[in-house]
Amino acid sequence: MPPRKDPDPSASVPCFYGAELRYLREKAGLTLEQLVDGSFRGLSFLSQIERGERGMPMDLARHVDQKLGTDGFFERRCKDAQKARQSGHPPYFADIPDLEKQATTIEDWAPLVIPGLLQTGAYVRKLVQTARPWEAPDVVEEKVRARINRAEVWKSDARPEYWAILREELIRKPLLPPEEMAEQLTHIHELIRNTQSVLQVLPETTVGHPLPMGLAKVMTFPDAPPLIWTEGEHSGQIIDYPPHVTVYRRSYDLLRAAALPPEASLALIEEAARGYRDEAQQQA
């Protein structure tokens, strides 16, 4: 039997609380099954929390406090953790940055906006200002910082293998002025090259294709089941039910087949960046 992998409490907020939960559970002499009994959560969910792969939801925090007699410790700390993790992110998205850091592989499908891990500050800012024009400037900048901080995952020696598929419209119909769009596309090109990642572009001429309804992120982990993240305008959902995950992954594989090859896709992005740069110079 392989040795148990304990979470590093210093790695992230979920890892800290996962390690504390495991310590207190074992101190109380309870198994995972005994601790989760009576809650609305499953055994695998609790196990993922102990390994630091997921944050603890409030309902489970209250259940754990009652079972372990921890006098509201996990409920109080759960509120603190939520505040820290949600800074600059909507509540429904709070788990995703930590999951991205822990993932072995990340596969993004971006039909409407450039994926968050590839965005420049200018792109994030314009995106927020366009989608939520009522936001105060300091709130917009908080969201920009949070999005850029997610890109710290690229600096890790244990960064996930990354694959992205973008619709060509995201390149041909710019959200930004020419100079900033050139910077955005150059950023994507350099990041993909420098991290040995893979990017494909789905041509404008491809009308029918898998996953036509919106964004999907596929994540796999070294010692946890894969999951899917889907997101709408003001909501998002983690999908971890195995049959649904399997269908999403099969659809993503078919989407790869419909997209341009990686080298041709990067060449298209490089050419588009050059075109926007020339346009910016002509406007100067």
Please give the number of β-strands. 6
Number of domains: 2
- As a percent range, the share of strand residues is 5-15%
Structural class: alpha/beta
Order of strands in the sheet with most strands: 3-2-1-4-5-6
Termini gap: 66 Å
What is CATH's topology name of the largest domain? Answer: Endonuclease, Chain A
Q: What is the CATH level 1 assignment of the largest domain?
A: Alpha Beta
Q: Any guess at the CATH architecture of the largest domain? A: 2-Layer Sandwich
Give the averaged pLDDT, no decimals.
88
Poorly predicted runs of 5 or more residues: none
Q: Nearest-angstrom radius of gyration?
A: 21 Å
Can you write the helix and strand succession as a string? Answer: HHHHHHEHHEHHEEEEHH
Main sheet characteristics? 6 strands, mixed
Coarse morphology: elongated
Binned, the helix content reads 40-55%
- Helix tally equals 12
